[in-house]
Each structure stands twice: as C-alpha cells, then as structure tokens.
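Dear support,

Our group has been running a series of protein-ligand predictions, and this particular one with 2-succinylbenzoate is the one our PI (initials K.S.) wants archived with full inputs and outputs. We had some confusion internally about which version of the output was final, so please treat the block below as the authoritative record. The input we submitted was:
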Amino acid sequence: MRIEAIELRRVDIPLVTPFRTSFGTQDSRDCVLVRVVTDAGEGWGECVTMPWPLYSAESTDAVIPLVRTHLAPRLLGVEGVGPRDVARLLAPIRGHRMAKAALESAVLDAWLRAAGQSFATFLGVAVDRVPCGVSVGIHDRTDALVRTVGGYLDEGYVRIKLKIEPGNDLAPVAAVRESFGDDVLLQVDANAAYEPGDIPLLRRLDAHDLLLIEQPFDEERLLANVDLRAAIATPVCLDESALSAQVVADAIRLGAVDIVNIKAGRVGGYLEAARIHDLCVAHGVPVWCGGMVETGIGRAANAVLAGMHGFSLPGDNSGFDRFYATDIVADPLRMVDGHLPVPTTPGMGFEVDLDAVEAVTVERALLEAPSG
Ligand code: OSB
Ligand code: MG
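Confirmed final output from the archive:
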C-alpha cells in the first residue's frame, strides 16, 4: 500500500465517573485518533496516551507535533507499505511507542479491510469471546469502594482489579476480600507507586490471596521485582516496565516477573504485543490483556488480542459502558455473561461513527504525502 495521508484528531470524551490511579485522576478521555488514507482504502487507530506524562513519558499534547515532524514523513508516500513495515520504518525514532502503535494499528486496519480479513483471523484467534475484568479506581472511602465493586460483580465482571497507592492499599483490599469472599478473582495495580523499602508492607498483601500485584515499582526498577518475588507469595506482574519483547525477555531471565500485562499501545503496537505473547508462552509466563481506557477503536482490537491462546488470565477488557455513556464506534462491545464477543468483521473489529467522532473532536491535523 501507499499511505497518501494521515489525519490526526484530538478528541475529548467525558467518562461516566472520574478514574483515579496512584498518578492522577481522569475525568475524560483526551487522546488522538489516527486515520490513514491509502491507495487501498482507509484505516483507523487510537493513540493511548494520557493527557499528562504520568503513566509513562508520553502524553497527548506531544502526539500531533511528534507524528507531524518525525513519524509521518517516514511513512507518507512510501511504496509497498504493509503492517509489518511500519515498525521497521519508524524504528530509528527512539521510544514514543504509543504514537507508533496508533499508526501501525491504523495501517493494519486499512490493510485487513483491503484484504477482507478480520484481525482475529490474522492473529489466529480461535475463541469467540473473552472474559471481562474491570479496573476499579482508588476511592476516598472504603464503603464507596465496596459498593462500586459490588456493582461490577452484579453486572457480571469475572475479575476485579483494585488500584492501590501507599495509604490506600491493605485496608481497601481487606474490605473487598471480606465483603465478597474468597472466590472473587482479585488483583491490585500500584502504577509504580512503591519503593523497594516498601517490600515488608507489600508482603502483607499475601494475606488476601491476590491473583497478582501489578507494577509495584518505577518503570526502570527491574531488580526490585526480583527482591519482591523472593519476599512474597503473590505473583508479581509487570505493566509500565514491560516496554518491548526485549525488556520482557530480559525480565524473565533476571527472574523479575511472574506474569505480564500486555498492552499494544505501551509496546509499540499489536504486532509487538503478539511477539510478547509468543515469548511468554514459550517461557510458561502467563499473560493478560491490559487496557488504557480505550474508545471503541482500541477496545475492539484488545478484545481480539485477548483471544490469543496464551492470554490465560482475564484482562482489563470491559464493556464500553464501564467508562463511556456513548462510543465513537457503531455497535460498541457490550459485556454478555461476563464476556466480550471477539469481533470478526474485516479490519481491527469496529466501524467508526464519523458523526460521533466529529462531535468530540477538539483539534485536527491533515498530513499529506508530497505530490508527484
Ligand atoms: O495501569 O493498567 C493501568 C488505565 C490508564 C492507564 C493505566 C492503566 C489503566 C487501567 C485501566 O488500569 C484499564 C482499562 O482500560 O480498563
Ligand atoms: Mg497497570
């Protein structure tokens, strides 16, 4: 394919309730959507940055200038570009994996649509639905948290993930465990809020029979996880630190990880995400599909990724209504019996609702291939 144009749209979509993590509170989804126009048709992707560089170094403000100046010129007008070429063409640019992932995803969408193939077929997904976990933000009051969790369990979510931070950890986890019993699949996510000196505290989480603790330490602190694993029984899962197949391979060799949260945006795209899946399967390391409060674009593709055979734990694959009142795709994914259907339409699994996108667009940029 030849990429003729890349349209970037910054959108701002209100959330049904504010979402608080150890690094900040989100009231709306402020991110950039990508539309690629090729000689074989169009495709859409979503860039999963947060408005501030608090989860990782990337942020929404930086996406449009970065794509305009450094990424798009390496793709526009190049002949014979397929999905597997995008990462190679963008590789000289360091980091910025979320921006790269959005571009690759849009190209993959266009390419699959042109081929009449679903992403599920492309990835070899054999299941028609995936289990739904839900990520629950930090609450000011434990009784309110217990009510929120009870609501999600009533809706049918099969696994609960509680966001934690120092001072909001042992007590809320204990309260949820006591309220809903030992059968509830329960895990916690620290979003890098702890220090190695907190290992004795984290060890007390063992009392609550958690599936895992996600990303206790800073992104760059791999060895602290080796020490934590030696101290606790709860499996240690990496999110922010798991930046690429190479980092995951190194973490496995170091003994720094029990379980990996795979997010296509964080690792530079769905193709790298699939490589991490394959690597972890080869090493017997369980994986699950993470989320970044995606719109219907990323949510559909994540439901496909989570259907790969190695995803043995429920992911943060929630129904669109977990975060949104309405979606920017037609027919957004809804949870049925605690599961999301794996989309099987050509492309990445969604149809963008252009009017809905228009209504939430706050900024636009159109980048075009040099003519001739
Ligand atoms: O750490 O998994 C995380 C949302 C934004 C940024 C980071 C994370 C999250 C979540 C939400 O936990 C996952 C979801 O989309 O359901
Ligand atoms: Mg996380």
